[in-house]
Amino acid sequence: MKMTQTAIKRGVTFFMIYLIAVGFGLFSLARLNVDLYPKLEFPVLAVITQYTGVGPFDIEKVITRPVEETVASVENVKKVSSTSTQGLSLVMLEFEWGTDMNQAEIDVRNNLEFIKDVLPKDVSTPMVFAFDPSTQPILYLAVASDLHGQAELRRISEQDIEPRLERIPGVAGSFTVGGMRREIKVVVDPTRMRAHNVSIQQLTAALQANNLQLPSGWVDNKEQEFTLQTAGEYASLEQIENTSVAMINGSVIRVRDVATVADGFAEQRQRVWNNGRPAVMLMVQKQSDANTVAVAREVTKRLKQIESELPRGVRLETIIDLSTFITRSMSNLGNTAIQAIGLTFLVLLFFLRNFRSSIIVAVSIPVSLIVTFAVMDQAELTLNIISMAGLALAVGLLVDNSIVVLESIFRHREEGEELREAANKGTGEVAMAITASTLTTLSVFVPVLFVPGIAGELFNDMV
Fold it and tell me: How far is residue 180's CA from residue 70's CA, in Å, rounded to a whole number?
């Protein structure tokens, strides 16, 4: 074996190569993202369109069917399904596994442009969503207080806490659930509307037309330019009540003549309790390429500072931290690897009764693992339970091969041969057997790369 002979003759050179490889491995280990599962890209897109106040039958007729017919021509579409409910159309597109979902999303958006003029004027713009598991919240925080009500807690969460969290590196966004959201309600009286001969469409159009913020040009001179902007948005309930809806027989019909304007709260469809008390929940999402553990730690570290800047009595409490489970899983796998190295060393020492030979195998295991991290970094893999399971399998194969080679060399040494000669002959005798054994093991796992569907995507990191 020429490689074995070269390694024996050029021991210092190969030792330096190993040191360089270990250095790259340690550097890559610091760069690897830690996550619970591999990065998955589901080949599914959702097209959501809202049309308030319209029934399911009409939604199906004027929105769902045109959208289905338009997006069905997109390349690699495998299945199209839809659901039409009160005021909402949901069209699901399932693509072939392996489809470039970024390009698929662009194609769907381009196709939807063709039916924009066909859809009713009051319908919302169709929204296209891709399913990305990496964007799920990594932290669930409770915003609680004994001094502030639910409405104030939601306002504090949305206006004071969310902007501070979103400035943290690696945080993609945050959103608030629960609490009460302020809402100006215009409660229409059908009897008064019939008496004044005013329709709900007239009332809606009047409110929309009088609640606009529009640019009004500019004024300039030789040295300066001033932008003009009209204050067109409502600032008080009185302005809403005095809005003109129609003019009948010279009389102006205002909003207060046909409806009651109230400053209240939106209907609560979600409620959050923390430790038996009403609270507001804040969810934090990470960027798709960010390290889950690092982002969660940074957010947790900043919580005390953020809490000190909030109004008196507001507390931030961590309900769920997904990084804790990930850290525990990785810690368990790390501890198992250390125990495996120790047990391997002890078993070899018991049978070979040679400390130097046993320590060689014990050192080869962590060196091989560290070098593997460099390959994982270049392949853009993450440290997750699947890739760590693959490393565990690789360690078992490595230990088996190491023991076979070491025992062959040890036998030649017991026969009285010189160290270099024993290493050369011992390795050469079992090289073919080890190669055949390794290829046999690989032949079992390589087909996993060609497994279709989510199973293949999930276990690619193991192979």
Answer: 39
